[in-house]
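Support case: glutamine complex. Customer-provided input:
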Amino acid sequence: MQSLLRQILNDVQPLVGEGKVADYIPALANVDPNQFGIAIFSNDGELYEIGDSQVPFSIQSISKVFSLTLAIKHYGDTMWQRVGREPSGLPFNSLVQLEYENGIPRNPFINAGALVVSDMNQSRFATPHYAMREFVRKLSGNPELQTDHKVAESEYEFRYRNAAMAYLMQSYGNFENEVEDVLRSYFSSCALRMSCVDLAKAFSFLANKGFSNISGEQVITQEETRQVNALMATSGMYDEAGSFAFKVGVPGKSGVGGGVIAVVPNRFSVCVWSPALNSVGNSTAGVAALESMTKHIGWSVY
Ligand code: GLN
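Agent response - structure generated as follows:
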């Protein structure tokens, strides 16, 4: 595994820094684009890492998987009345489908879908972001995980697009709580800071039939685990989900902080981070690293 990581690093080195750091969230614009790290956490509890694997970064949309998992734990199958399971084929922050589809977002990993899922968690917890942070601290085994309040504030200040989606969904009756409260919870969860090591550990339950070796609990059922992985495979990489399946061939989820998490079912979870993004908002070097990884291990879910 360690030599696999060295090979990957070698393969993608020329791409590190290629692309653009997300700057529509001003507090993210100052991140050094030339960073790169990977961590792999195997189902038998081994950790492998290389590069900037312990540097915490803004997890952004990777948080959508944690929120979804929390919601599934409580709502089970009923949650699918409020959010769909189809890829959108549009940018992550698009509003256009909402009007055609009566305020039901296409899937939980576009922003509109994640906002509905946050609304569900808002109905259930008095302090939803803290509930979510506690959940993620347990899954990662890192009680020190912090929220970057500056990033959350900065997103709230420039919330217009996400606010527009949420109010549009509210107009269709697909929102239960105060939009502004849900936006704040959603941005705080996106603003969690985690390293590749934290994330690889926290996602290990998805590679291990829903059981976390870190927290020692069955997080969601085996069937629900399969469902979350299927959603990541079809919608986890936004408008690049198709070519990610084509080139990499495992479930993945990206965030505009430059992190990408991938799950190799029954084997390991892996997190790659490099802040410079391609045109759809996925880490350029991160996607390339995962492509190199599945090539080297000669394995994909397909
Ligand atoms: N917090 C970001 C937003 O709502 C998340 C986007 C992302 O990582 N793709 O715009």
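The first strand starts at residue 37 and ends at 42.

Case will auto-close in a few days if no follow-up is received.
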